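Course assignment 3, question 2. Fill in each field.
Student: A.L.
Task: Predict the tertiary structure for the chain below.
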Amino acid sequence: MPQVSFEQWKEFIAKAENPHILQTAEWGELKSAFGWDVARLVNGDWGVQLLFRKLPLGFTVAYAPKPVISGKGEGESEKDEQVARQFWQEVDAVCRKKRAVFLKIEPDCWDTQPLELSTFHLPLSTSPHNIQPPRTIIISLEGSETDVLNRMKQKCRYNVRLAEKKGVTIRSWDDLDGFHRLMEVTGGRDGFGVHSLEYYRKAYQLFHPLGVADILVAEFDSRPLAALMVFALGKRAYYLYGASTDEERNRMPTYLLQWRAMQWARERGCSEYDLWGVPDEDEATLEAQFESRHDGLWGVYRFKRGFGGEVKRAAQALDRVYMPLLYRLYLWRMGNRE
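Answer field:
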């Protein structure tokens, strides 16, 4: 059964080994509510949720964020290889039917162990552009809470405890209007894009009832100082959206907020917490420049490094090109943005 329904895809993801949050049926529904078309394909152990962004003149761009790749690889049987080939042929057919200029695949693995191109049974090339932030910090949640705290840098651990002493409190929050206002304040201050209120509300409505997402708010004297939206699936938790005001910063609310989010993730059986996005530089460069750089994600890195995680980089995105001339135009436009 190549293309499957929402419910069939949910069943497939439920059986998959540690799938990524971006491949959940709910994430597909979120994106479909804001301009993307969704196609979900399954064949045996192989499955992918494809997102199609509409372009002028009926063209599209196809995107597969963190697809579920079969564990079979080198040494697979002839039957397994045939299933894999059939699966990727169907992916190809769907992309062509949707008039995709190209398909971008962001593998769910690190650059230290990238997947072989032959795994996909498609003519793919390494892309010069990613959609998701390629480099991140992964916090290990294994061991006791004391173990997690002890892996933090001393100053960060001190700030977590200082926030508690200074009266900062953390609780679950369902005020989406308030959360969006905080996001707009932070986006305006730090210069990053903010989704619409409707986007955050839809994400909350899709994931929160399942128990895999929550909004946490840090307050002092009943005033919201910072908030985040955290997600959990399988062994992984993700800090996707966060915001803070400039008020009461001496109380260090964001440090306690992240710690509570990690505790929330541990309660759901997660063993790692993805801080989701730091500058795309190697760790030596990050450490050498984080005190002097203030552009882009450098301020974010100064904050996130304190939690004692491991800097990791995702395997580079891969592109399957269907329309070479339009693809070259895409590369030219992306190059002019850099």
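Instructor remarks: The mean pLDDT is 94. Residues 6-131+314-337 form a domain with the Aminopeptidase fold (CATH 3.40.630.30).
Grade: pending
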